[in-house]
Design goal:
Distance between the termini: 125 Å
Number of helices: 40
Low-confidence stretches: 434-438, 882-907
Radius of gyration: 41 Å
Largest sheet: 7 strands, mixed
Strand content: 5-15%
Number of strands: 15
Helix content: 40-55%
Shape: elongated
Strand order of the largest sheet: 2-3-1-4-5-7-6
Mean pLDDT: 85
CATH class of one domain: Alpha Beta
Structural class: alpha/beta
Length: 907
């Protein structure tokens, strides 16, 4: 430096400048770099001279300047940047990008130089800047008055400069002609990350958080897969925040959803890392070079927005540096070597074994409390809260949106409105085509974000799968569309629109409820709903037929358990039949659920669906064959009787008979006539009922359709037992046994054994009663006839009471009555008999002991009660049994119905 240059003293503003990427620029230009460097120096010196700054040092591409006036220093930097930008450089790649840093502090020159920490602070500020950017300290801002014309300063916040313990507030010079958007300053942060700040609490997911952390710590690339709204980003950010300390070079969040062009993915990652493009060099190479020697975690969010470009960037990053780890969120995997794919499950809707609420309910409670201004939902709303989260399949975004609805609805009202999931959750919000920033504003938007990436075959399959209410296997999917659907199904699974659930018997596939609701809307909009839902009705009928046949195609004993997993599909098919499809097809499906509805305590639902189907025939004018209508009326009568609606039972019984008599089908008429006694019994007209049964049985014998009149046989046996005609009842039941065994729809109920057990009890034969009743109970439980199993449990309770085990009897009475209450079932013709035995057991034990044992049994489930009943000791094993003692008469029991009777024969 020339000694003639005057160095300012006092409050001095120091300026450092250099060319960003100068080494790379020199390599690119070769011999042409020196003329460019000379031109760069000329432009800067002309600026310095115009503003009376002192040039202390020029070395390579760097300048060290001092100004007595902070405003002049800022003016010099502004003018220099504009000169550099406007200059006519040989090529765009040859344009030098100069970074500048300013700091003002008290300094005095000695021997032509400054020995002050303020100089080092200015140098560090310049090092934090990017090419084309001017940064200054708060001290410079304080002394810069006035500002250069048209210029302003943007507060970038507090940063820790390398080599300094305190934090410096940095400002960026803003002015027309200058670039404004830059990455974050290059500073030494104590905890290097840019993770988004969350405004709400993180609820649940402890098990998933721990599992994902284990994977991230053991694998360099982990991809979190899931449908839109399942909470991928939130979980990944929460986990990443906990990993900051273990990654000394930072944890960096990059939102790929905001990247509009595949070629800009590497630029988005580089921008977050504070990297700028280097002349003549691909951005990805700059990125890889930067990452090579660093230990950092990169969180790439919503990679499905640019899957191929994201995969390329990830592959290059991981290949370039062993210290780099990538945690990605996406709706589809990349297929890269070493990729660990982890599918995020929905929030748990089942309460933990240890007690408390499920994660899904906990989230809804938390967000509902916030939506209601801090007022938590009332405890009485707990059942409705659980209904809501189950209906939403535990999808976090759906739960968040549902909580917002609780500002105007009660939880019960919300639960009732969720048949229209999307309409309820998105109420009051626009559902336009989603932008990147608004894709989670509504369920419609977040699902459209995925749907528009599907090819035509996958989109069609998604729409058609909306007709299913639950999981389906591959053969069912192919049955629906009559085509090989493996390819489009694979696309839907890969894009997390359909969940694949592997099992030893083969994978099943299902959609979360919000996705199903969205797909159903698309199905209707595409004009395909009629065809798809009619096809689903046909499949439901096919599935019902298949359940009644064995592998050899022969009929098998009906098991209601086989119907349980199919009920959701049948309900969906019935809903369509009652609203937009065929009532005749609906009545056929209803007949398949006939016994299931009554045995599950849902006879009222059967009546509801039948009434809707009748209304549908009126609405459309569809003609129903008389045979099918008579069967429907007969079924309706049985449902009404199970519900205690005796007038309705009689009315539909009469309708069924009237229609059946118009059909030349003796079997149908026998089945309908066999039901005539039921309403008479329910109305207490026992003699009339017995007469009807005898007439029907005689007629069925003449028509050779006695099997179809089996219900009349059982009704007559019950009536004979009731009035003590035990021999006739036993003879009737003995003849009915082979008939029952030959009818697959009825043999699982083992009604013959149940009634023979009651006959044996009335005779005082505990051994025969025990054997018959346990056979009946075992079969009824094995085949899912729960309502009828309650009758058998109470009969076994009578057997225990008669066998001097009143405690077990009281427990079984309690279990049977509790289950009846849950099933809305009455004991019917057996009611008075069971009640009298129960009263005797109470008298034997005393009120306190009886109530304790009864309450214990009432707390058992059906399976536990059945296990206790089946474990009752056989009378032959009881102490003092005379079963095989020669010449010893059978014991008698005191019956509350009348005098005891002994009988040597077994029914």
């Amino acid at each position: 430096m020339s000694p003639r240059i005057h160095l300012p003293t006092g409050w001095v503003t120091f300026v450092f400048t250099d060319i960003e990427g100068s080494t790379r620029l020199a390599q690119l230009l070769g011999p042409d770099y020196r003329p460019l460097l000379r031109e760069h120096r000329r432009l800067l010196r002309r600026t310095v001279a115009a503003t009376e700054g002192a040039e202390l040092l020029t070395e390579g591409d760097s300048f060290f300047l001092a100004f007595a006036d902070a405003s002049a220093a800022l003016t010099a930097c502004l003018t220099a940047q504009r000169a550099l930008i406007s200059h006519d450089w040989p090529t765009p790649d040859a344009t030098p990008r100069v970074r500048m840093g300013l700091h003002t502090g008290w300094a005095e020159p000695r021997d032509g130089e400054y020995a002050s920490p303020e100089v080092h602070r200015a140098a560090r500020i310049a090092a934090a800047a990017h090419g084309g950017q001017v940064l200054c300290s708060a001290a410079t801002v304080h002394h810069a008055d006035p500002m250069p014309g048209g210029a302003s300063l943007l507060d970038l916040g507090l940063y820790r400069l390398r080599g300094f313990d305190d934090r410096e507030r940095l400002f960026q010079l803003i002015a027309p002609g200058l670039e404004r958007q830059f990455p974050r300053p290059r500073t030494a942060e104590a905890a290097a990350h840019n993770l988004p700040t969350q405004v709400s609490s993180f609820v649940g997911r402890q098990a998933e958080w721990a599992e994902l952390r284990r994977l991230v710590e053991s694998s360099r690339l982990v991809t979190v897969l899931g449908a839109g709204g399942t909470g991928k980003t939130r979980l990944a950010v929460e986990l990443a925040a906990d990993l900051v300390e273990s990654h000394p070079d930072g944890v960096w969040f990059v939102d790929i959803a905001t990247v509009a062009d595949p070629g800009l993915v590497a630029f988005a990652v580089a921008d977050v890392l504070g990297l700028r493009p280097e002349p003549g060099r691909p951005m990805v190479d700059t990125l890889v070079e930067y990452a090579a020697a660093r230990r950092m975690l990169v969180l790439l969010d919503t990679c499905d927005a640019q899957p191929a470009a994201s995969a390329e960037a990830i592959s290059r990053l991981l290949a370039g540096g062993v210290g780099v780890r990538v945690l990605a969120t996406s709706r589809e995997s990349f297929g890269l070597p070493g990729e660990v794919v982890w599918r995020i499950p929905p929030l748990s809707v089942d309460p933990p074994v240890a007690g408390g609420e499920s994660d899904a309910v906990a989230l809804l409670l938390d967000r509902a409390t916030a939506a209601r201004g801090g007022r938590r939902p009332d405890p009485v709303e707990s059942a409705d809260l659980r209904r809501v989260v189950r209906r939403l399949d535990g999808v976090p975004l759906a739960i968040e949106l549902a909580a917002a609805r609780l500002r105007v609805l009660s939880v019960g009202q919300l639960a009732e409105r969720l048949d229209d999931v999307l309409g309820t959750l998105d109420a009051g919000r626009d559902s336009l085509e989603p932008s990147a920033s608004e894709r989670h504003r509504t369920m419609q938007a977040t699902l459209t974000w995925s749907y528009r990436t599907l090819n035509p075959r996958a989109a069609r399959l998604l729409r058609w799968l909306a007709v299913f209410a639950g999981p389906v296997d591959l053969s069912t999917v192919e049955w629906l569309l009559e085509d090989d659907q493996l390819d489009p199904l694979s696309v839907l699974v890969d894009k997390s629109m359909v969940l694949a659930e592997p099992d030893v018997g083969g994978s099943t596939y299902r959609m979360l409820d919000p996705i199903r609701a969205y797909a159903a809307r698309r199905l209707a909009a595409a004009g395909e709903e009629q065809a798809a839902r009619n096809r689903h009705v046909a499949w439901s009928a096919h599935a019902l037929r298949r359940l009644r046949l064995g592998p050899d195609g022969r009929p098998v004993t009906l098991s209601l358990y086989a119907l349980d997993p199919l009920v959701g599909e049948l309900r969906a098919a019935l809903r369509w039949c009652a609203t937009g499809g065929s009532a005749q097809a609906g009545l056929a499906l209803a007949s398949g659920l006939d016994q299931w509805w009554r045995e599950r305590g849902l006879a009222w639902k059967g009546r509801h669906w039948l009434s809707r189907l009748y209304d549908r025939t009126v609405e459309t004018g569809e003609s129903i064959p008389d045979a099918e209508l008579a069967a429907a009326y007969h079924m309706h009568s049985l449902h009404a009787g199970a519900d205690g609606e005796f007038a309705e039972e009689l009315r539909y019984s009469q309708r069924a008979e009237a229609v059946a008599r118009q059909v030349s089908n003796a079997g149908l008429l026998a089945r309908v006539l066999a039901g005539r006694a039921a309403p008479l019994v329910d109305l207490g007209q026992f003699a009339e009922a017995e007469q009807v049964c005898r007439e029907v049985i005689d007629w069925a014998h003449r028509q050779d359709v006695v099997g179809d009149a089996l219900f009349a046989v059982f009704s007559l046996a019950e009536l004979l037992w009731r009035r003590g005609a035990l021999d006739e009842a036993a003879e009737l039941l003995g003849a009915a046994r082979p008939v029952e065994a030959g009818r697959p729809s009825e043999r699982g109920r083992r009604t013959v054994d149940m009634l023979l057990g009651l006959v044996a009890l009335a005779r005082g034969d505990l051994i025969a009663a025990h054997e018959h009743l346990l056979v009946a109970l075992r079969s009824r439980m094995a085949h899912g006839f729960h309502r009828r199993a309650c009758d058998t449990l109470e009969a076994i309770a009578v057997r225990c009471a008669a066998g001097a085990d009143p405690l077990t009897a009281a427990r079984l009475f309690g279990a049977a009555r509790a289950t009846r209450a849950a099933l809305r079932s009455a004991p019917g013709i057996y009611g008075e008999y069971f009640a009298r035995w129960q009263a005797q057991v109470r008298e034997t034990l005393g009120d306190v002991t009886f109530d304790g044992a009864y309450g214990e049994g009432a707390g058992w489930g059906m399976e536990e009660a059945a296990a206790v009943a089946l474990g009752v000791e056989h009378p032959d094993l009881a102490a003092g049994s005379t079963r095989f003692a020669a010449g010893v008469a059978q014991p008698t029991i005191a019956s509350p119905l009348g005098p005891a009777t002994a009988h040597p024969d077994h029914a």
